[in-house]
Design brief:
By secondary structure, the protein is of the alpha+beta class. Strands 1-8-9-10-11-12-2-3-4-5-6-7 form a 12-stranded antiparallel sheet, sandwiched between helices. A hairpin with a 3-residue loop joins strand 8 and strand 9.
């Protein structure tokens, strides 16, 4: 399991864009020319998210990974729960990853504040204090939770965007397959990644997006994101080896502006020997 985790995490970074689907509070209706457009909904959702002080994010992810060179296939499932403050930046995250081929599970927990970051990877009771450089990368990734941001910046995707609405939500859908809008999708995905990956032109060239289905649902009144669902099939060549991953990701956003503070418990510092 540990051997495959770096590859799985690398590809997972490529797909941490949000999308929405699930049960709705009414029948979906196609947006009409008299209603707000998909582009306008994305712009308003982007702006609304940037004004949030805090929120909770819950993700459920299933990955099917095939390593052609190693001749292995794996199914990984992950559950990630995060409470997040935007200013000053802070988060508390719990995560569980299960390898369904081996039956092994790995649980981790992390706290981050502007002063320090601690993590427990589940392999021992002792917590570890994370070096400042690694902590900076972690918080930068946690701040990229805005599901509308990169779509708002992207050009050339208007013809594959569609929108429906219910009494509660606007639901924006993006569907792409084959070489359709490959360059635009790569730009969106790379922009959502940490800076060291964005500068990796070789990674961008080796990335092949076979299918990408994405729905984003936002509240009609607040324009805050509510739920997401994304399905993608990606092929990535790493050191001459081809790795294919099919991923399904869904989750929800809640507790908007209701988290008053996040701090590192004294017990965590004691177990870390801090």
């Amino acid at each position: 399991m540990r051997k495959i985790l770096p590859i799985g995490k690398t590809i997972l970074l490529l797909l941490l864009l949000a999308a929405c689907t699930g049960n709705n509070d009414g029948l979906r209706q196609k947006a009409t020319t008299r209603s707000i457009s998909a582009e306008e909904v994305i712009a308003k959702a982007d702006a609304a998210f940037e004004n949030l002080d805090s929120l909770s994010v819950n993700l459920e992810i299933i990955q099917y990974i095939e390593d052609v060179g190693a001749g292995t296939k794996q199914k990984l499932s992950s559950v990630i729960n995060m409470d997040l403050l935007t200013s000053p930046a802070a988060f508390h995250q719990t995560a569980n990853m299960t390898n369904h081929e081996t039956g092994l599970s790995q649980t981790s927990e992390a706290y981050y504040t502007t002063e320090e970051m601690f993590i427990n990877d589940g392999t021992e009771t002792r917590w570890k204090k994370v070096p400042d450089e690694q902590a900076a990368l972690a918080v930068a990734a946690s701040m990229k939770m805005n599901p509308a941001a990169e779509l708002h910046k992207a050009d050339g995707l208007q013809d594959i965007l569609s929108m429906e609405s219910t009494s509660r939500e606007y639901i924006v859908t993006l569907k792409a397959a084959g070489n359709q809008h490959m360059d635009e999708l790569k730009k969106i995905i790379m922009a959502s990644m940490p800076s060291e990956f964005q500068l990796n032109t070789e990674l961008l060239e080796k990335l092949n997006i076979k299918n990408f289905n994405y729905e984003l649902a936002v509240n009609r009144k607040s324009f805050f994101p509510e739920r997401f669902n994304a399905k993608a099939e990606i092929e990535l060549s790493i050191a001459g080896n081809s790795v294919t991953m099919k991923q399904e990701m869904e989750g929800s956003y809640s507790n908007f502006n209701n988290i008053m503070g996040i701090s590192v418990p004294d017990s965590v510092r004691m177990l870390a020997g801090d």
